[in-house]
Amino acid sequence: MRILHTSDWHLGRQFHGLSLDDDHEHILVQILAMIDDARPDVVIIAGDIFDRANPPQSAITRLSQFLTTVRAASDAAIVMIAGNHDSAAQIGAMGVLADGGDAIVRGPLDEDERPLVIPDDHGPVAISALPFAFEYAARLCFEDDAIACPADVIRAQLASARKHVAEGMRWIVVAHAFVDGAATSESERPLTRMVGGIETVSAGAFEGAHYVALGHLHRPQPVGQHYIRYSGAPLAFGFDEEGQQKSVSLIDLAADGTATVTEVALKPLRQVRTIRGKLLELLAAGEVSNDIVRVVLTDDTPQIDPMKSVPRQHQWHRFEVVI
Question: Locate the Calcineurin-like phosphoesterase domain: which residues (predicted)?
Fold first, then answer.
């Protein structure tokens, strides 16, 4: 079985006030091309599809068009969960766009975590889709007042999901979580609203799964085991992600459950980068760029409103000045 794993699109997000609509469109076209080329059996979107619970109409339209295109152009099953930036109700309602084929779209929690079961040449594969939820919602859903942190939420979801996975069946878990040992980025929002709350979950919580498709962290990376993986965000959302190769994860699941992971690189419409130097020297260099640029000025004396000195052809109006 072949799986395409992506997450953390953050549709509707801006970068320091700059719209990323064109950048998102550029990336989603590439992901659709990957689906057409790689012919995955399953397409997973592991949360934070939108940047906020009330996204702009352009973001909703972009997701709708993507799902409609996948459904029309391929036989891939669609698996999608809500992340901590999403409205659970909205993601759940958008599941209708995945109708017409195998799909599991999970917004709100469900006390009975039944998987989507898809057969391949080697037998059935169970896919458990575990949406993000805050602790109070999980306490109500699972009727468990002991749930006090994001790790407790995940453990409750996994306990419910395991009941429906037959012994010996290959098992894929889709979750939106912060796993111990993973590298973070500046652009990620905490998963808990409790000051001092325990945000992370141990990789050991996913014992028994053959592949864990994670969302939440923006850097593509395995954590704990090679089969527990963040696909990462498809775009850079902060200057600390400068030079980071964004990608989609392509997974081939063997008959014995062994997962082979390939990172398929994405090419951004614009690079996120930093230039350094004295203001007049940078202007004299005459660089013209449409990239998202942070300018670090090294002048000996402070520059007053350096933006006024930048000709429009430099397009440095899309930048942050660090003095």
Answer: 1-89
Same domain, 240 and 283: no
Amino acid in the structure at residue 271: Q
pTM: 0.90
- The total number of structural domains that make up the chain: 2
Q: What is the pLDDT of residues 221-250, one digit of tens each?
A: 999 899 999 999 999 998 888 889 999 999
Does the structure show a pLDDT above 60 at 140? yes
Same domain, 116 and 51: yes
pLDDT the model gives residue 194: 45
What residues make up the domain containing 309? 272-322
For the chain, percent of residues with pLDDT exceeding 70: 88
Q: What is the CATH number of the domain that holds 58?
A: 3.60.21.10
